[in-house]
Amino acid sequence: MKKYIVMALCLAMSATMFAQETEAQKELKAEVNKGIVKFQSEDGDYSFRVGGRVVLDGSHYVGGFTDRGSGAAMTSARLRIISKMGDKVDFKLDADFMSSTFIKDAYLRYHTSENGFVRFGNITEPFSAENIISTFDEPFIAKSATMQAFGTGRAIGATYRHYHDYFWFEGGLFSEKIHARKAGDMGWAATARLLGRIQGDDYHFHLGGAVTTRRPDANGYADGSDDYNRTVTFSSNLESAIDNTHFLSATANNAKNIFKYNIEAMGHYKNFYAKVEYTGVKVARERNWEALCQSYAGSLMGLYMPTPAAAKAFLGDDLQYNFSGYTAEVGMLVKGGDYKYNSVEALMRRPGAGSLELLARYNHTDLNTIKEGSIFHNNGYTGAGFYSNAMMIAFYMKNDSVAGGSADTFTLGANYFFTDQIVLRVNYNLAYYNNPYNLNYCYDNVMHAVQVRLGFEF
Hints:
Strand order of the largest sheet: 2-3-4-5-6-7-8-9-10-13-14-15-18-21-22-23
CATH architecture: Beta Barrel
CATH class: Mainly Beta
CATH superfamily: Porin
Structural class: mainly beta
Radius of gyration: 24 Å
Helix content: 10-25%
Shape: globular
Number of helices: 7
Number of strands: 23
Number of domains: 1
Order of helices and strands: HHEEEEEEHHEEEEEEEEHHEEEEEEHEEE
Distance between the termini: 24 Å
């Protein structure tokens, strides 16, 4: 069924086109001369092109108490269609046959000026340089643990972008992601990225950041409401391409809204580049106090919580979760010329054919929010968890602390570009993991990984 949907969309978007290109549309044309199949009218007013991508990964893991599964896999197999429809409109459809969501980019873009456009469809939220970079163009094989945990990914929405020599902005509104939703209202998000920058022929520097405020999707109904049972999980597999064990994982129950912010600085001079990012997350939470009181009515604990106000005073306010992470990375082209800056996307361009690139990255991610004075106890009835006092332990009442763990990771990488479309990446990853409160992974500490990726486009 999926292949028929893709074919139908291809035919539907093959329409008549006309007029000249904007700066953003020149970005599309730049790919045409690098192996992408293209159909174009004689006068150039119409263009329609088809391309694809395949990524093969292999990983070998050493160290740690928990065994991770070494091996190889095809992690991406994409088919993309891009159609230019005159001087104002173009369309993109990107489907990944190895992904559970299948559809990646699927949007219509309208160019409002030579340096701006709006997009509608399933698109990447403009949050962080690492979050928005294409998988094929990522300098490392896996995203940092911070961005795996906090990245926004793609969602259905609309954005406006304006790119100028001295500043770059994109902001938009988003609704659900493409997945199977549970009952109740879907969530929403408002996300924006703003940068100030300077650039020349062989250098650039930009500084800025991004913010997103969001309401999670409902998780069905509880006690007749979908407002209090919204759940969000932040997790990472410690920058692994093959094994997907989520050593870092924090689940926020009763999530009311989420605020994320990112600060980024990136620059390059000739054959050297550097980038740093910091990401913070705040999760505001709210329980259904009235339903909680009713659940304890008639029990001994009900004497302490006869009303919602009494329950809130007895148990304390809902704990706001605060998580964070930061990344620093550097790269150097030892062969193949200098780096180039993509001013439309505000990202580094992929090095060209014959380039040899050396890289290093450090990342720290913290998914712990533990209420002050908490007691960690391995209660046989409810399992290990945090309790506010001895009486709470006796009544099996955990508090709302969460210990998702923390990790420091170091990655060394080497990339060789055989052609503009074929790249070989090799990474060595060292992870220092710390989570004594997760009984499944409490004995894990130092872990190593050697990973290889072969990617090619057509």
